[in-house]
Amino acid sequence: MVDNARVLVVEDTEDARDILARMLRLGGITAITAEDGFAALQALEQGVPDLVLLDLMMPKMNGVELLSHLRQDPRWRDVPVILLTAVSEGRLITDAVNLGVQDVILKGSVNAFDLIERIARHLRTNRSASN
Fold it and tell me: What pLDDT score was predicted for residue 60?
């Protein structure tokens, strides 16, 4: 169900970004990576992904700020977003949920199987809603 899906991974830590991209590739998912919110906006201009995997805490533009940009632009408004976070940043997570984030994953608990399953679930839901 996720084969050939395109996922934009927005993560400021290079090692974490590489690990997430490798996990996705194991599941047949094309991973596009960006190191911050500004690089993510540039990547989005190159093509709309099927889903965005978004780090919450990043310098320059945090995940909530990027999510706000996504939800304001009609080209990206309906792209599902899964938020990644190292800790429970209460207010920021609440802001992200209010902006329509589909899921929240704690970084310390993420494994390839769970990540791919959650992505598949949200892609199925998004495709059903758009039909």
Answer: 87
| Structural domain spans, the chain | 6-130
Beta bridge partner(s), residue 84: 55, 105
Structurally, at CATH architecture level, domain 6-130 sits in 3-Layer(aba) Sandwich (3.40)
- The three-state secondary structure class of 46 is helix
Q: What is the DSSP letter of 112?
A: H
Give the C-alpha separation, 2 to 58, whole Å.
27
3-state DSSP assignment of residue 120: helix
Whether 89 has a pLDDT exceeding 80, the answer reads no
Distance, CA of 33 to CA of 112 (rounded, Å): 17
Mean per-residue pLDDT, 69-84 = 94
